[in-house]
Request: fold
Amino acid sequence: MTTRVFWTLVVGFLVGVFARSLVPISSAFSLLLVVMSVTSIALVIISREKRTTGILVAVALISIALGIWRTEVATLKGDSFLSAHLGEQLIVEGKVAAEPDVREGSVRLIVNTDTIIYNGATSTLENVVGVLVVAPPHTDVTYGDSIRAVGIIRAPERFDTGEGRQFAYPEYLAMRGVFYELSRAQIEWREEHTGNPVQALAISIKHAFLEGLGAALPEPAAGFAGGITVGDKRSIGQELSEDFQTVGLIHMVVLSGYNITIVLNAAAWLIKRAPLLKHMRFAPMGVSGMIVMLFVLMSGGASSGARAGAMALIGVYARTSGRIFLASRALAVAVLAIVLWNPLTLAFDPGFQFSVLATLGLIVFTPLFAEKLTWVPEKFLLREIAASTLGTQLAVLPLLLYQNGQLPIYALPANLITLVFIPLAMLFSLIAGIAGIFLGPLAIPVGFPAYLLLEYIISAAQIIADLPYASISIGAFNAVWMIIAYAIIFLIATRLHGNKKRPDVM
Reply:
């Protein structure tokens, strides 16, 4: 009973959040759900014949209402003054609220704007409004700086991603508290501040590490090393990024839960063979926690890094303990906490969606594949990598096809011949980056092992991407088909787990 109540609460809340994110739902409807929930409880009290059903219905209705209400509270609105002057030039003042997004043709700044200057008149906004300031390349601005920028104020628009698909860019920015763009912006003045000191320290560590990588390694190896260690995916370039996507290795380029999971699995393998640690019950999780904290710090304290670390810990716990049921609950609690903090994440953050599904794949599908892959040797974690690759690829495939329509045909062999080297590549990249910080160009010999590993992975991705039919494009389709696909594969997984001694899939 407790288990069913837990999952009804979690699923109901997520359904309410998702529905309100996509469709305007009035507060009156939420109130109606609450009234229906109270009615259901009253019926349970009067008649105990269907007590369990009545309680579950009441919990479902109240949790859906809570999800709708939480999303309504979190759905911020734009500013009436800015909305009235779209397409016009004005000046915004505020503080840079996140690490600048440095691209080849621009520097994108999320600015918490509190002051507007229009036609010489200064106005203070009632509430701080997020504005995406698109500044010229090489703009010298850092997190926490106060700036004044002049440009054309616009509303973000959806854009095509190919094959009839559109990216919900306005909603994606709204998730980050941004409702306007200041295009063709020029920074008129900048005043240095620190912002949140902890985040500022994390970002400074990240930048120092990237500079160290640049000193110790040539491109594109340095850029790839930045991607697999601190999530700096833009430094590898558009062409190489497309190659990794074509062959199903794009998860390497970002600091994903899958990347960290592979490293944590390697660490667990070493702990089992360490004389002092192998007899300590909590050593694997303790070491894993420290590794995750290191990655989060190196990623600049980004929420994506923290999320990837949390998902990796849950996946490792599921694999090392065999407690699939408890790992599923841990994942549900983590998802619930993230969505409670920012409800728009559920519907409009692809990174979050892929991260959750990949972790769910590690928990649910990987054990099933591992049982069937007895012909794959365990040496060098090959069986673990094969099972994890199949599990995560199956879990994210419907969403991947829905989002971009690219089906990577050679994903499994590409992962098998490269993922085995990722832990070492990350380790030697870490050594190279630290050496580069202290030794500068003299660190090139220290970075040579990392360079060999990184170049091998890059070359493998490029060669496989050039093979015939490396990726098949699939046209846009309705999200209903994606939901049906997930219902089928998870139903099959539940049946397979149910035939085992421990029927605790979810």
Notes: The beta strands are 89-96, 101-102, 107-118, 121-135, 146-154, 159-162, 165-167, 178-191, 406-408, 471-473. Residues 2-74 form one domain.
